[in-house]
Task: structure prediction
Amino acid sequence: MTIIIKVTIWNEFLHEKTDERVKAIYPNGIHNELAAYLEQFDDIEVKATTLDSENFGITDELLDNTDVLIWWSHMEQDKVPDEIARKVADRVLLGMGFIVLHSAHYSKPFRLLMGTTCSLRWREGDFERVWCVNPGHPIAKDIPACFELPNEEMYGEHFDIPQPDSVVFAGWFRGGELFRSGCCWNRGAGKVFYFQPGHETNPVYKNPNVLTIIKNAVYWATPCNKRTTLVCHHFDETTEQRYVKGLTETY
Amino acid sequence: MTIIIKVTIWNEFLHEKTDERVKAIYPNGIHNELAAYLEQFDDIEVKATTLDSENFGITDELLDNTDVLIWWSHMEQDKVPDEIARKVADRVLLGMGFIVLHSAHYSKPFRLLMGTTCSLRWREGDFERVWCVNPGHPIAKDIPACFELPNEEMYGEHFDIPQPDSVVFAGWFRGGELFRSGCCWNRGAGKVFYFQPGHETNPVYKNPNVLTIIKNAVYWATPCNKRTTLVCHHFDETTEQRYVKGLTETY
Amino acid sequence: MTIIIKVTIWNEFLHEKTDERVKAIYPNGIHNELAAYLEQFDDIEVKATTLDSENFGITDELLDNTDVLIWWSHMEQDKVPDEIARKVADRVLLGMGFIVLHSAHYSKPFRLLMGTTCSLRWREGDFERVWCVNPGHPIAKDIPACFELPNEEMYGEHFDIPQPDSVVFAGWFRGGELFRSGCCWNRGAGKVFYFQPGHETNPVYKNPNVLTIIKNAVYWATPCNKRTTLVCHHFDETTEQRYVKGLTETY
Amino acid sequence: MTIIIKVTIWNEFLHEKTDERVKAIYPNGIHNELAAYLEQFDDIEVKATTLDSENFGITDELLDNTDVLIWWSHMEQDKVPDEIARKVADRVLLGMGFIVLHSAHYSKPFRLLMGTTCSLRWREGDFERVWCVNPGHPIAKDIPACFELPNEEMYGEHFDIPQPDSVVFAGWFRGGELFRSGCCWNRGAGKVFYFQPGHETNPVYKNPNVLTIIKNAVYWATPCNKRTTLVCHHFDETTEQRYVKGLTETY
Result:
């Protein structure tokens, strides 16, 4: 019996409508580009949603039916209301996977989950070589020791993130910078993967290695356990007493 | 030349005024108990402040003169305004050390920096044995393999925190639970140490091992570098071009 | 198309032949007990081997056909020759998964991979409660917040291991100790999971949670990428020059 | 009262005697170059020793008087006998600090402590820019966001090391590679810092940032606690029983 992984791709979907260069690359939006790729896999079911959809593209019903949420945003990060950002972050803490792409380092839900500014050094237009620094990690599966992105935005250190639980990829830029480009964290019962490539003016989401990494990340971020609450567990009895009574403990 | 470390102890200071049991243990408040201990060290300079002081005990001038901030709070965590919590968290990201005690796992600035709920399992009244799981860590200096706290509040797993950069201590409770009791994180240019012992109705801050741990944490959390900004660095020129011009890069 | 994971279970297989208590629990040996459980899964193919088999149970042909190696040993750890231990460790560095059970904390290949003594505090006979401290980890899938092992050997801190990449489980013992009971490391392109429960005189490998954890660990430890060499890569040309020529880089 | 840190610098001291280029840079050897720098600090006491000294430069008496051992080696790593390498590694596990420079990534004691091959990609002669990725770490104290080494040997990923407890520096090379250049691990009660810069044909150990980093690493690696044994602690009594008797536990 195949387990189906429910993936939702949330996209700001602004550049693709207003910038001819971006429209030429992703006429249906980055969300549909990624959706078309992920739909090829029998055990992945994809929905796509955008900032201009109902309730900013995030409804409870949608989240109830999402195992892994992929997020691309840039110019209108601030248009996502705080309560929507909180709702997304809470779902991650309860177990949902969260894949954060490129400029979404500055998205509200990612910053809530990181607790740092997520600021970085940047510059438009450079050549990037992505090196794998953790070949045994599931997100590195089938990825070579390095691969190149001839046109990418430079994101460089210091990247103000909490120390990742694993750094899987690091990016080298001709202009003289480097970056922790692929980073993993556990947060609550959920998993978060940040991946730097994906500037809208370059066809980065057509690169086979980039796509494989995103697909690997979907499998990696699929929930293992779901938590039942985000608040403290309090019992007057000790766990030893509860055990004698045959009571069991939940997350 | 001795470097002086400027420590500020912030205390909610409510239980000590309203609960006779607590008043009997800490007649001058937990803040003054800890201050009296830390003042013994020549290279530590201590200030103490409380929730009922000017601006909730947190002024810019105070923070300008704080290398390490120690925080105890419980019942009135929510009385600290969001903008004060943000200000404290930002100072940590810029380099300030932050030592978070006991029930302050639920304080606003700690939760902002962690990005998780910081929820846990709890029960009043148990016997705790604190084990060191990282004897080479500077916060473990001069601490035995384990030590006991005959009366302590039970805090147990699952503790909803990001994976610590180092777990230094773990607590064993007779009631059947365990806990990551002493945890370290880097956040921005600052360092954060959470330490679980310190329930107000027990004289835990008179225990010599507990005091040594707090003192060790002060030295460990002292800033190494201060960041100059919390926002992104952007330059049109590459770092290679800037280097040729003799320009230098800051955090 | 289902990918088949090739699992080899290596067992010292001595207690089961010489100690009536152990024989009564595992008449066919711990290896066959675990094999019978894992064989239920369609995508897992199991072989079992023992210290008294050809070449100490470890041949190149066997390792060529092993994705994940499970290892139980105790009294005769030293009978495994150094060159066999090295061969096993090297296979891990090339990508093989390695699941190390109970007293095999002192096995030669585990110690080679850890680089520390792997010493610990121990005492026969106690009650253990295993707590999950990382509910989002794939090895914790379907495991409750805690579960009990009424009879288990106590292993306690300080456990002299490198800081794990993830601690998934921690054990609480009635006698007053705690332990990092389920620990993960990446080593080279391979993954290592150490799991403490499994003393031979207790039917621990019949406990459903213990079995689920071992099965989860098999999936987790399955190789992602295999390295082609364990020695340094040296090229006179830069990676930039090699890229222009269309050369690709391997691990 | 100032605590004196006893530093021993062990150098292979071969290139400096046989290669005119190296002799011109370090006429008294790399060990004496580093010793002269470290001796400026009032609380650091320095000894230097070399492979061609008594017992390969490593005696018990010397180790008894060493808090932090700095190690440079390259061509004759294999001339260090296995038992000397084991002795050094064991001292680290007992608490000694260990700073491993450049080509000593392949030294026997470092490989013993890491448990991996420590292999890497390399090429003679490139321009390196060292970026700090953890500005709050004590080894980064007073180091700018990046600094340059116009002539350095390229060491690149994949570097086959265990995931560091902290990565403090990462190196960017013009030829297209990057590297985790400054890495920290706890091992037993000791601390290990690997630092990549320091090829013998370049005056890297005259660079003020490199020297500051080595000095910072000395302070960071100074022992906090010493372990009393490397073998398991076994007691028939529980820790609870031993506590009642007033017995204390050691590492």
The radius of gyration of chain D is 19 Å. Residues 139 and 217 of chain D are 5 Å apart (CA to CA). Chain D touches chain B at residues 95, 129, 132, 134-138, 140-146, 148, 165-166, 186-191, 223-225, 227, 239, 243, 248-251 (CB under 8 Å).
